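Forwarding the complex inputs:
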Amino acid sequence: MDVPHQILSFFPFPILNTLAISVLSFIFGLALGFPLALLKAYMKRLGYLVDVYEKIFRGIPEPVLILLFYLGMTFYLPFPFSNPYFTVIFALTLRSAANQSQIFRGAIRGIGEEQMAAARSVGFSKLSSIRHIIIPQVFTYAASGLANEYALLVKDSAYAFAIGIIEITKQAELLRSYPPYDIVTPYIIAALLYILLTFPIATYFDAWGSKRKKKLGL
Amino acid sequence: MGSVMECKHLWKTYEKHLVAVKDVSMSIGKGEIKLIFGPSGSGKSTFLRCMAMLTPVDEGDIYLTDECLTAKGVNLNAARARIGFVFQHIYLFRHLTALGNVELALRYVQKLPKNQARERALEALREVKMEEWSHHYPSQLSGGQQQRVGIARALAHDPRIMLLDEPTSALDPELTAEVIDTLRDLAKEGVTMLIVSHEMPFAREVAHEMIFYDQGAIVETGPPEHFFNHPNSERAKKFMTRLIKRTERE
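Prediction (whole assembly, two chains):
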């Protein structure tokens, strides 16, 4: 029991790193992905560009994206791409925005065009309909998808280890190479930490969405 | 009597083949109640949505009192706010209570201060006898109650005309009655209404004119008695016979 306890004491800072990378990527991904979904849903012409964006960023493996930015882009634009935190959050954000755009598009479809028609019929403009009628409903529909996306980001933040950020995976990697050279425990602890970071929050999101759906009779 | 709403030579075609509105002209005066009826798929709903400026027309003009809504540069949001529209499938805002549904546009379209918006919303709910349900969500209301809230929502901003698209056809007979009662109250108050409906007893009671609509065009118009006794066109005759039979069964 003593050894795992000792190992655990090495993890607080890496946990913070993992959380910071995944939460920030999630928030930035939402800030970019939701407007993309709106473009796709309500502006047919620009919607085509959104499609292209989604295809590209959902099609590239995350490590390739991270290394491309970190090694490739740094060459041309040392600031800010030489900062590994910036680069990994940037890469994850772009991918997450593509996913979240799809999640929100599904949610908007779930809300249905009728809600928009009803809003227009009482005199709301398209934009204020989105603000007053679509946005208040969209998270109810998107909740389970967003929960999934968050869990995905926590796991994908592990790729940050490739560019030297000491997050959970990297820390496990470091610990096994020091005495007592235990190659099992650090990884088991890392695995448990990932589950702990994803499961409760994702479940909470999901349950919130289901509860609200039930209340509103959706 | 100046017309409240008028349309001239309206056309609306879907995908080149399906003509939903074929050169339709009509007008409705203040306090008048006109009832559109006809076979399903004949384009009645499309026509009504065009009049409400919810669906763009291909050709023709629509006037609300003296303002041409189909002219260029018209503020359509403002125009729609002056027309009350009630949907067949109701479409209440599902994240809001009955009160919230009625209040929302008063606050953010009409820009009324909070208290005043609330007062007006409650007044509208009172008019449809839904005041005591004001804090219920749509999911907690029956279809008939939902539709009455839908009517209150359209009524709250004091529209020049109410357009109702088969307001009872999605409800079972029992719930239909309470919505019809509400509409009857509005009729007594002199609200100008253009209604798509097949509720024949109601039509006979309140409509000033009935309009038989088929294949995208107005086939025949006249007071209810005209249709109940001796419609001219063969199509209207057949349709009336079927409707009356159905009503008797119910």
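Chain A has one domain: 3-216.
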